[in-house]
Amino acid sequence: EAQLVESGGGLVQAGGSLRLSCAASGFSSDDYVIGWFRQAPGKGREGVSCISSSDGKTYYKNSVKGRFTISNDNAKNTVYLQMNSLKPEDTAVYYCHVNGYWGQGTQVTVSS
Fold first, then answer.
1. Contact call for residues 20 and 43 (beta carbons, < 8 A)
2. Cα distance between residue 28 and residue 1, in whole Å
3. Structural contact between residues 36 and 49, judged by C-beta atoms closer than 8 angstroms
4. Structure confidence at residue 31 (pLDDT)
5. Cα 97 to Cα 111: distance, rounded to the nearest angstrom
6. Whole-number mean pLDDT of the chain?
7. What is the C-alpha separation between 65 and 76, in angstroms, rounded?
8. Which residue, among 43, 38, 54, has the nearest Cα to 97 in the 3D structure?
9. Do the beta carbons of residue 23 and residue 8 sit within 8 Å?
10. What is the mean predicted confidence (pLDDT) over 102-110?
11. Which of 10, 20, 26, 105: CA 20 to 30 A from 40?
12. Measured in whole angstroms, how far is the alpha carbon of residue 86 from the centre of its chain?
C-alpha cells in the first residue's frame, strides 16, 4: 500500500529554519513528481514546491523562492523541504503528495 509520512515540523521563531521530510513507500513506480503543499487556518491548500524524481526539476511558489529548497534522496525514497528565513505567514500544516496520495501532514508554526 502506498504511503507518505511527513516529519520535521515544529515551532520556530521568525527567521529560523526547519527541515521537513517526506518518506514514500509502496509506490509501484520510481518516476513521479512529489509535491509539498500547505494549508493555513481558514485557507485552502496551496502548492509550495515540487520535484521530479527522474530529472530533479523543481518548482517553487513565488513567496518561498530563495528561502525554501526541495531535494530528494532516491535511495531513501525521501524528499526534503529545507525552510530558511521562516515568516509567520509560513505557518500552516504541510503535506506531501504523490500520484493522488497525501501524507498526514506536519504542523509548522512560526512565531513573530
1. no
2. 9
3. yes
4. 78
5. 26
6. 94
7. 25
8. 38
9. no
10. 97
11. 26
12. 14
Cβ neighbours for 35, distance < 8 A, ≥ 6 positions apart: 47, 48, 49, 50, 51, 96, 97, 98
Grid cell 518548482 in the structure block, residue: 59
β-pairing, 68-73 vs 92-98, is unpaired
Instruction: Give the dihedral sign, CA 40/45/48/49.
Output: positive
Burial class, 70, CB count within 10 angstroms (exposed 0-12 / middle 13-18 / buried 19+): buried
C-alpha distances in angstroms, 25 versus 6, 7, 22, 73, 96? Answer: 12, 15, 10, 13, 13
Reduced to 3 states (helix: H, G, I; strand: E, B; else coil), residue 63 is: helix
C-beta atoms surrounding 95 within 10 Å = 21
The model's pLDDT over 36-80, given as tens digits with 9 standing for 90+, comes to 999 999 999 999 999 998 888 999 999 999 999 999 998 898 999
**Cell numbers that stand for 39 in this block:** 494549508
Distance set, CA 87 to CA 22, 38, 91, 111 (Å): 22, 14, 8, 8
